[in-house]
Design brief:
By secondary structure, the protein is an all-alpha fold. The chain has one domain. Helices cover 68% and strands 0% of the residues. It contains four helices and no strands. Helix 1 packs antiparallel against helix 2. 20% of the residues are buried.
Length: 147
């Protein structure tokens, strides 16, 4: 099946948002690792920063592949949930963080992510996710599961 235009737009926006997230990680890495090392309770857990980045990358790429390439309907809802969490985290960080480059990139990243998620609910993507017209909640799909 040919991917509908909203899915192609989702893919481009989501991957751009993902790349911005990696840039934010790179810009804040030293600050985060210094903060971990400064506290005696967390100094021994510096390795967790790299582990968190690896998990973040793996999870984001899984979501991208499942939604944009395989049309797995339930993963679409995971993307929605995590985008909502990113929006909330951004709101909290705007109140506590100085207006620096990583913060501005975070705003752009979340805006791209929200725009990408909106593409997942265009009427033309119902077939991509294997949803029939009687399926109102969009949680079930007939497309093959990830294997």
């Amino acid at each position: 099946m040919t991917r509908p235009p909203p899915i192609v737009r989702f893919e481009r926006l989501y991957l751009t948002s993902f790349a911005l997230g990696l840039l934010i990680w790179a810009l804040t890495w030293e600050q985060l690792s210094t903060r971990l090392a400064a506290d005696p309770r967390t100094a021994a857990f510096g390795w967790m920063l790299a582990a968190a980045l690896a998990l973040n990358v793996a999870f984001a790429l899984f979501q991208w592949y499942a939604v944009a390439r395989r049309g797995v309907a339930w993963v679409r809802w995971m993307v929605v949930l995590l985008t909502t969490l990113h929006m909330l985290a951004l709101l909290f960080s705007l109140f506590g963080a100085p207006l620096a480059l990583p913060t501005l990139l975070g705003v752009l990243r979340v805006a791209l992510e929200v725009t990408a998620v909106a593409q997942l609910f265009a009427p033309t993507v119902r077939d991509w996710f294997g949803l029939d017209e009687a399926d109102d909640d969009g949680l079930d799909g007939d497309r093959e599961e990830l294997a």
